[in-house]
Amino acid sequence: MTAIAHTRAEREANLRSAAEQREHERQAVAAHYEHDPEIFSLVLDSRLAYATGVYEHAGEDLETAQARKYARIAAKLDIRPGQRVLDVGCGWGSNLLYLAQHSEGVFQGITLSPQQREEALRRARAWGVADRVRIDVCHVEDLNLRPESFDAVLFSGSIVHMHNRPAVHQLVGEVLKPGGRVLISDCYFPVQQRGDRDSAATEYIFVEALGYCRLIGLAEELQLMERAGLDILHVEDLTRHYAQTLAHWIDNVRKHRRTIEAMAPGFAAVLQQYMTVARMSFARRTALEYMILATKGAPTVDPGAWPIAQKGGRS
Amino acid sequence: MDGILDNDLILARVRALIAESVRQPAASIPLDARVDGSELGIDSLALIKLMVRIEETFDITMPDLAATDAAPFGSVREVAALVAREVAARQAGGGL
């Protein structure tokens, strides 16, 4: 499949060899996440999820919304004792460590940032799950894994940084055992052209602030997953929730602007600026946020049995 | 930023920040030019950056650009008046 390039950064990526692009992602993507974790701890929830929460109502706080998201991912992946989980782009370990604490699974995370690895391992030790958690600094395409060796693979806010999506989905299709699940929570462009994808604002968020991002259409992602032998089980829109999450992050940047500036001059402005671009994009639905669940072979979870909140029956 | 900020000083500072954003001398920025229109050549990213600069400079919170009912920002003079109201509110609130 010849992918359509939506942005200048993507067109440039298409001119690189696969190896050159991997090297580019290693350098460019890691830079943002190499900032002191202390800065992110002032902006994000206590587990440092750098991804959307799930809100039940407008007045809810960030911590509650992220807790609901962790529980939702845990329910969707349904990790049984001894099952093996791969978290691709595990960040500071938000989901990986939550899952380790709430299951008896065995966990392997990868990140491009040594700072993130160190912080995640520090937390794993503090929370008593280090014996079931391994984290490596590694690009996903450099992973050398046995076929059918994992029960679940997670990408939370990470696949957007990966240019070579067919290779990534092929890898997932190969390493999952029959009955294995893959969950992706990330950002997509609507198929209908809305907004200017070559604007200074898009370039700012995708390149200057975050190194390298490639937004594709949801259907393109789903098709690549299906071609890798995965069956789509469930897709939900979290666009509104991301706009709300970003509002909390922006307020936290404002609240701690001076502390952040003292630790990394200029970074508070970068955070507030890119987060405002992102918030406006989600609010206007020029970018969309989806959580996708797929399975290899017969599913072990049944989305048809999941509750849908009753009208007026908010708990 | 501390001390007494009168409205003329705020207008001058806001105008200087806008001038910096479009890389023009402050004197060439008409006070009645719309900040969020094409008149000054401030695109959506430049507008976001300008709002962040204003928040940093005056230690205030500017209106949410993503709000569905967001009002347009208006002229240089109107933005300065908005900043002056926010600064006054902060000072009355016993803030910094």
From TrEMBL, chain A:
The enzyme's E.C. designation: 2.1.1.-
UniProt-annotated stretches for the region Disordered: 1-28
Residues of the Polyketide synthase-like methyltransferase domain: 39-301
GO MF terms, alphabetically ordered: methyltransferase activity
Keywords, alphabetical: Lipid metabolism, Methyltransferase, S-adenosyl-L-methionine, Transferase
GO biological process, one term: methylation
Segments of skewed composition (Basic and acidic residues): 7-28
Top-level division of the source organism's lineage: Bacteria
The family this protein is said to belong to: Belongs to the CFA/CMAS family.
The name this protein goes by in its record: Class I SAM-dependent methyltransferase
Taxonomic source organism: Nannocystis punicea
TrEMBL record, chain B:
Pfam family, any one: PP-binding
Domain annotation Carrier: ranges: 8-87
Listed Gene3D superfamilies: ACP-like (1.10.1200.10)
Annotated keywords: Phosphopantetheine, Phosphoprotein
Entry annotated with the keyword Phosphoprotein: yes
SUPFAM superfamilies per the UniProt record, alphabetical: ACP-like
Protein's UniProt name: Acyl carrier protein
